[in-house]
Structures are given as C-alpha cells and as structure tokens.
C-alpha cells in the first residue's frame, strides 16, 4: 500500500458547507483550489443512489460570473465559442472559452437570465482564469463582469426523484422548467436561481444562493429528500457519474492543448455566428483540415482498469492516451475515455491499453456509456 | 485494536504465519482509506516475492495503490475469489479478503514486522 488518500490543502478556499460535511463524516479532498467532500458513505453507494433515487451535491467550488449590460450578449459571443445572444431568456447552453489558437481554457454553462443579463458557470480550478479572461475581453463593450464565485453557494439535487424532492420547497414551476432552463425564485424561502442542469446523466437541478444561505439550503434539501432516501454525494461519485454519462472533465479530456473538435464537441462551436470571436481563425482551420486525434469511449475487455495517462496501442503503434477511466458502477465493466488517432476512432475498433506491464484489449464504443431511460 | 495474531507492515499489509506459510492481505484501515475496491492484481503461483518489494496492485474506484510483500517467499496460492468479488477486501479484510499465501523464505523476516500494538500506534498517528 502506498500513501492512502489524505486531506491535503496547500492553499485556497474552503466550501461554506464544510461543517455540514464534517458532521456527515465526509472524507475531504483538495480540488480546483477548494477543500471539498470526496465521499461520505462510499463512491459506489453514492453513485447508485443518484442513478436509482437522488443525491445531494455541494458544488460551491464552481465559479459564478455574471455579465450584464446592453452588450452582455455581444461580448459573450466574442469571448466564447457559442452564440449566447441566440439564447431565449431563461434558457442555457453548454459552451467553451478558447484561446486564440483554439485551445480550450474552460468548458462552461451559459444561462440567459434576462435581456441584458447572463450567468457563466466555470470550473473551480479555472474560475479565476475565466474571470480574468472575460475581464480582458469585455474591454470596449458596454457590459460589466460581476464575479460572484465566493459570494455564491451551489447545491445540486440529481437523480430520478429530484423533482419530487425539490417541488415542495420551491415556488419555481419545475414541471415547466425544461432541461437546460433556469428560473429565479425561492427554495426553502431563500432567494435562489434554480436550473435544470447537471453533470450526472440524470434529471436534476442546480440551486444557486448567497453563500450565507448555503447551509440552510443544504439542510432543507437533505430533509426534503429523506423520504426518498437521498444521500450526500462527493466528488468521487460525481466523477464516475459524469464518466458514465460521457461528459468531459476539464484537466482530463479538455485542456489548453486540446480543441473542441478533437473532444467531439465541434457542435458547440458556432462558426456560422456573426462577427469575430476569440479562436475563430484557428477553429475554422481545424474544422476545414480535420483533427489529429479524437476522443473516444473504451470498454476494457480483459482484466484491469484503464486509468488517466495510460497509453493506447494498435499493434505496435502507439495511437493515443487514456484521459479518464474507472470501473463503471452501473455497467460493471471497466470504461475509459481516450484520445486516439482518427483512423482508430471508429466504434468497434479493437485497441490495447498499456496497464502497467501488460497490454489489455479494449473496444472503441460510442459515448455515452450510460443513458437514462426517460 | 487490530487483530493481535497478525504482523503488519508500515505500508498496511498484514501477514498471518502458520508454520512456514504466510497468508497476506491489507488491513481494514487501508481498505477504508482506499474506499470501494474494484480490482486486485496478484502474482501467479510460483512467483518469488522479495520482502518490501511490490507484488501487486489494488485499485479502488478512484485510486491505484501498490502492494508490498511483508516477507520474501514463493507464492503457493492466490485468492481467486477476488477476481469476481474484489469488494471482499473491504467487507472482510482479515478473512475472505485475503490475497495470497507464500512459502516463507526467511522466518527471521517476520520478526522485523510490526506487532498489533505497533501497527495500532502507526495508524493512530494518522
């Protein structure tokens, strides 16, 4: 046994819900510069609860960046690869912020809260970079950036029982709140933004409140979920849930050296939107000339688990590298995502993963690994 | 208190000695720290182990950890049940979750390992 997981925090932030997590016996971990819960009862147990019933997540580490003003939409259209002005008020879309060379700085969700008001949610580890980059790109536009990351607590309820749990607590009409929609209202009497978004592959909601109301929100959601056997869920199960759902994780599938097309996210990039945007020339070139590698799903056929950074081979040729991998709690098989050469990316292709000193066969499959029944 | 009839490594393996055969596994503390164990990779029967060298790997959902041999010796048996039920390491680390048996090469090595009190003190330090 080498070093077991331990509580490490060199510098940075602590979730405002830390006392709740300690009281629940959570194991804590540093992630994206924040001390956050890794697991409570265990990753497999928490994972199953979300697939079968419901789980409660503390996502207060995420970055909340509000952009407001007559040109709020215009500056986001320039700064991001999507076209936020095309969003209807109350709707959201998945987006990315790229560098001039097309490299991904972060993946985001953009919510349109009003005619001139947007919310951009960034990953914890990139929140400062995204904030700084938007502050640069906003120059000359009639819009202001309000970084409320530290002033905002975020809790998510995810799983098939989510709407039954949240409905009695809120004045937001959940039945008419569609996937990737957001509404302002109250939850447990607390002013809140309620969004039907998530990172688990299940139905669910994300609830944004002021930091000072975070504990009250957490307590209310946990209590309302008791009849449905809700469990608190840490970052460990969040990772296995998103991996089954085929969703990328920044730092694994996405980083400064990857572009959206390689990651299979070319559909996110709106090359047909009007005007210039940061990364346009580089991304148009990728779209025209094709990609050097493609993100694929793998199901390992032999014994072993493919993990982040393990090499992938076809015969003696090294074709790529694993970006994320685990044993799928829902399917039972070892699953992974990997970048491979475009010629090896067709579903059904058999590759080999270098797992320590062995080569283990794996099959390329289409993503996601898991899709909920509706 | 951990079981008193076992000896322990600082790397959280345990060993149970019966005659010249040592049964080896990982401690409950280690299994709890790792979390849900989903894969155990063990050497084949007949392989020679060297004390404190790696002999295999245990993987939880999140992490991969090396296993270190408490004593030198030759593998005589491995716990085949762990191939399909690796979670036995979590649920019964000192019993059904055992990993392998080795024929001990040098019985004096056993005396270099921690006893239960020593191991308890080690994990109490965190």
List keywords for this structure.
heterodimer; A: 374 residues; Elongation Factor Tu (Ef-tu), domain 3; six-stranded mixed sheet; 19% helix; B: 126 residues; OB fold (Dihydrolipoamide Acetyltransferase, E2P); six-stranded antiparallel sheet; 4 helices
Written account of the structure:
- The complex is a heterodimer of chains A (374) and B (126).
- Chain A is of the alpha+beta class.
- Among the domains of chain A are: 13-61 and 151-244, Probable tRNA modification gtpase trme, domain 1 (Gyrase A, domain 2); 292-374, Elongation Factor Tu (Ef-tu), domain 3 (Beta Barrel), CATH 2.40.30.
- Helices cover 19% and strands 33% of the residues of chain A.
- In chain A, strands 11-12-13-10-4-14 form a six-stranded mixed sheet, with helices on both faces. Chain A has a six-stranded antiparallel beta barrel with strand order 15-18-17-16-19-20. A five-stranded antiparallel sheet of chain A has the order 6-7-8-5-9, with helices on one face.
- The model of chain A is unreliable at 1-9 (pLDDT under 50).
- With 126 residues, chain B is an alpha+beta fold.
- Chain B has a single domain, classed as OB fold (Dihydrolipoamide Acetyltransferase, E2P).
- Chain B has four helices and nine strands.
- The model of chain B has no long low-confidence stretch (mean pLDDT 96).
- The A-B interface holds A 1-2, 4-5, 27, 38-39, 42-45, 236, 239-240, 303-305, 307, 326-327, 329, 334, 356 and B 11-13, 26, 30, 33-36, 38-39, 41, 57-68, 83.
